[in-house]
Write a structure and sequence with these properties.
single chain; alpha/beta; Quinone Oxidoreductase, Chain A, domain 1; Rossmann fold; 2 domains; 7-stranded mixed beta sheet; globular
Length: about 350
């Protein structure tokens, strides 16, 4: 089968940083589905894993943790899907990725594809939606439609996760302050439902005060945690909650991530890593299947929209290198999707 992968880390400008491959088609066992991949999207996780494998390997590393496709075959223990079902998912970071014609994935982290979307529009959603959903509802403890007058600051509002987080936070009835720094990203975030926009390159508190907000109840940090911690500590309410998705560099943890800044306010600080359930085979893995199905219903009901902003075709090494290059620029809005091998 066709696939795209790498044997060693190289700058994305190097033609061998991602190459076209032919590899053996896998066979499903246990609760695995064999999926005929129709569309994939790229995420910072793809870039991070590619960069972290700075060695020469005998077998290629196949990336990709967002896909939509058709169930080709099911393992003997599968209970949730059958051949022919249209599905979408984010896979597991501990297994070969979805940048291949056929892909194995545990059915417990797979959802039924939204009926109203094509494969590309669906492939834009899983990883970012799971991250935003778990960050808001599992980690921060936000409740849907509580009617409470609460606010959330979303740092990095125009990116893939932010684009979904804004929409989910709006459904939860929160006042949403997003951060963005360019006219096009500001317009995108406002179009998704952000009530106010501030610039993450400047101090937060004066900008919040300008729009009549003294402090926020929740913060979802989707950008550099170390860089933004002092600003977050200043604007979070006493006993507020902060969720971050970007780990601090281990070498700078003690000196740069000044957690004591949160002490006097008794602030809750939590991490969100959407691969935790699949990587560690937690007892509640099935929750990702359930939330993807619930998300599909919200999409089909017109309450959430896809964050697809750019399509590339076909799925090959050249187009994946282009997508990685765009992602590495740090200036992408929404999601880049590749479709059809």
């Amino acid at each position: 089968m066709k696939a795209v992968g790498a044997y060693r880390y190289l700058p994305i400008s190097n033609p061998e940083s991602l190459i076209d491959l032919h590899v053996d088609k896998p066979e499903p066992t246990g609760r695995d589905l064999l999926v005929r991949v129709k569309a994939i999207s790229v995420n910072p996780a793809d870039v991070g894993v590619r960069e972290s494998h700075n060695y020469e390997a005998d077998s290629p590393k196949i990336l990709g943790w967002d896909a939509a496709g058709i169930v080709e075959q099911v393992g003997p223990d599968c209970q949730l899907f059958k051949p022919g079902d249209k599905i979408y998912y984010a896979g597991s970071v501990s297994r070969p990725g979805s940048n291949s014609e056929f892909h194995l994935v545990d059915e417990r982290i797979v959802g039924n594809m939204p009926r109203s979307l094509d494969f590309a529009a669906a492939a834009a959603l899983p990883l970012t939606s799971i991250t935003a959903w778990e960050g808001l509802f599992d980690r921060l403890g936000v409740s849907v439609n509580t009617g409470e007058n609460k606010s959330i600051l979303i740092i990095g509002a125009a990116g893939g996760v932010g684009s979904i987080a804004i929409q989910l936070a709006k459904l939860a009835g929160l006042t949403i302050i997003g951060t963005a720094s360019r006219p096009e990203s500001i317009q995108w975030a406002k179009g998704l439902g952000a009530d106010f926009i501030i610039n993450h390159n400047n101090p937060f508190l004066p900008q919040l005060k300008e729009v009549g907000i003294d402090a926020v109840d929740y913060i979802l940090c989707l950008n550099d945690t170390v860089e933004h911690l002092e600003n977050m500590a200043e604007v979070i309410v006493p006993q507020g909650k902060i969720c971050a998705i970007v780990p601090a560099n281990k070498a700078t943890w003690a000196g740069s991530l000044k957690m004591d800044l949160l002490f006097s306010k008794s602030v809750t600080f939590v991490w969100e890593f959407m691969f935790t359930r699949s990587l560690l085979q937690t007892n509640d893995m099935i929750k990702q299947h359930e939330l993807l199905n619930e998300l599909a219903d919200l999409i089909d009901d017109g309450k959430i929209k896809t964050t697809l902003t750019e399509r590339l075709e076909p799925i090959n090494a050249a187009n994946l290198r282009l997508a990685h290059e765009k992602l590495e620029s740090g200036r992408t809005i929404g999601k880049i999707v590749l479709e059809n091998f």
